[in-house]
Amino acid sequence: MPLKFPPLFLLTANFHKDPQELYRLQEEIRDVHGALVFKKEEAKIFLVKEITAKKRTALELRKLGIWTREITYPDGRGHDEAELESQKSPRKRRKLSSSNDGWEIINNSPGSSTESDDDLVIEEFKSTPAPKNHGLSSRANDEPSTPKAATPRAAGSPKLITVLKISWYLDSVKSGELLPYDDYLVYEGELLPGSKNQPSREITLPSRGNDILARAKEDTLPSSGKRSVGKYNSSRTSKSHYSQSSGQRPELMHETTEEHEGTDMPPLPDYLHSKYCCHRRTPLHCQNEDFIAQLRIIQKARDIEHAKGNEFNGKTYNGAIAAIASYPHTLMSRREVLRLPKCGNKIVGLWQEWHETGHIKEVDDLLADPRMQALNIFYDIYDVGEKRAKEFYNRGWTELNDAIKNWDKLTRNQQIGVKYFDEFREKIPRVEVEHAANVILDHVNRIRDGFQMVICGGYRRGKPESGDIDVVLSHPDEEVTDQFLETLLNSLEEDPDHPEIPFYITHRLTVSTRNSDRGQEAVSWKGLRKVGSGFDTLDHAFVVWQDFEWATKAEDLSNDPDFRNPNTHRRVDIIIAPWKTAGCAVIGWSGGTMFERDLRSYCKEQLGLKFDSSGVRRQDDGSWVDLEAGGGDLLVKEKRVFAGLKLEWREPTERCTD
């Protein structure tokens, strides 16, 4: 029976010489023991190969965005420092001048694995200032699962970072039991309350003007330099591969023999020979998430700038991100990146910079740029796109308070977006998604029994938390779905017993019944002679949702009749699809952005068809193509569409391209 290891994170240092060993170990730890994690926040143990120097280990952790301080004991040293020092030969050191601050690495070219720890000289001038955000969640070690014999020094502490030799794993497998750490411990560090080089999430910035700097430091990666970008605009149409943040030609990239040896790379999966995401398996988590997190920041900035004439716009980064997310191995070389679809020299250059330094200057500059901070705030307001965000900024607005001060210049939906700005940005746990969806289905079937529903969006792709709630509803009797939406909304908006109290829906954002208004008949579309005539016109309602029940409701209202509902306002999208094309609706609302975009491109370029959530039509004459005929439920109909489009079935959890 396989051993039950705690979550293990495999550091890639020193696998440069034999990447196949890394791939083999990753597959073994993942497939045999189910213990491999690729998100540092989930790791309880970090495994490292051929590194015993503590400062080198600390540097490898820092490349991941994990800042630590070595744990010391009463004698002022780490528990094994004396033993390690006795084994080390004298090392040549270079004195650092007082102008240096932080780490200095001498004779340690990135990716090199031929140097011994004695040849690696890492100096620290005085003490490195602790960064202001940490990159490792305190939840990483909440539930230690390692035997006590293997945790002699409180390894379950939420702030303890433990790095062991890879031989601990190998010897434990060989012996059939988890061995104590003592003989394998390389480094034990206390997590510092910050992380200058942490791989950033998508840009999340403050909502209140006076808190911009403080919240930005909490939610984003601080800049490593003082120079900010702020010059991304649609007039910059250069096709060069130069960095747009610096405007300078990048340094030449050093290539080794390994770069030209295809045998050093794992075989490329067949599905990655296709440029279409709908052909690929793209799971929720992958081995290159930290690098992807950096690319997402650049991609979002490009989307906000909407640089259509720029070769490196948001769509370019979306395509590269989707390809990397589908790659089932840790990227180890430039050539390995370059062979992926939509990953050209620009992406390769960014990967090499991140691989060698642990961060990307362009990302640092973007996150430090006040203009981009302001644009990002406005872009995150509901119903504000890139054009309106730049319009707000050009008026001199720099924070959310400026939008509040100019309330009359906002549309109704934008006012709602500002009012619930913080609440809309809070992620929704799966249990809450399920509760809201069940409420909707219950009301639907009270009105007319027999409806079927699929919860779509990020929930269906397996995300632990969602940005909003998407549900697709349909009924085998198409007369039932005709003009049904308004009846449903009325049911969810008003409690018949207490009409004076707000019910589940507090605001309607967008409501469309165009599908019912034309009798649910197929859209009148004339093929190539009239493109874009409102083909995707399902009945839908985008609403603001607030659960009107809470645990202490009776007591709270008894004490104060004006007590305000404490539940968070959520965004909910309700889609009503006619039965004949409901499978297309489920597909259209389930996949990530690039999956859906490439599905449309594939249908157009390879099949001569036009696809969206309303159905499938021929490009030449606009005639409807029925791919869903036959019995079965919504999921059966969804699979029929895949088969009709000559696509291999992909579970929703394999369509995670966003």
TrEMBL record:
One annotated GO biological process: double-strand break repair via nonhomologous end joining
Organism expressing this protein natively: Phialocephala subalpina
Protein's UniProt keywords contain Nucleotidyltransferase: yes
PANTHER family for the chain: DNA POLYMERASE TYPE-X FAMILY MEMBER, DNA POLYMERASE TYPE-X FAMILY PROTEIN POL4
Comp. bias regions, Polar residues: 221-248
Any one GO CC term of the record: nucleus
Top enzyme class: transferase
BRCT domain span: 161-186
GO molecular function terms noted in the UniProt entry: DNA binding; DNA-directed DNA polymerase activity; metal ion binding
Phylogenetic lineage: Eukaryota, Fungi, Dikarya, Ascomycota, Pezizomycotina
Cellular compartments annotated: Nucleus
Recorded family membership: Belongs to the DNA polymerase type-X family.
Pfam entry (one): DNA_pol_lambd_f
Biased composition, class Basic and acidic residues, residue ranges: 76-88, 251-263
EC number annotated for this UniProt entry: 2.7.7.7
Protein's recorded name: DNA polymerase
InterPro entries, A to Z: BRCT_dom, DNA-dir_DNA_pol_X, DNA_pol-X_BS, DNA_pol_B_palm_palm, DNA_pol_lambd_fingers_domain, DNA_pol_lamdba_lyase_dom_sf, DNA_Pol_thumb_sf, DNA_pol_X
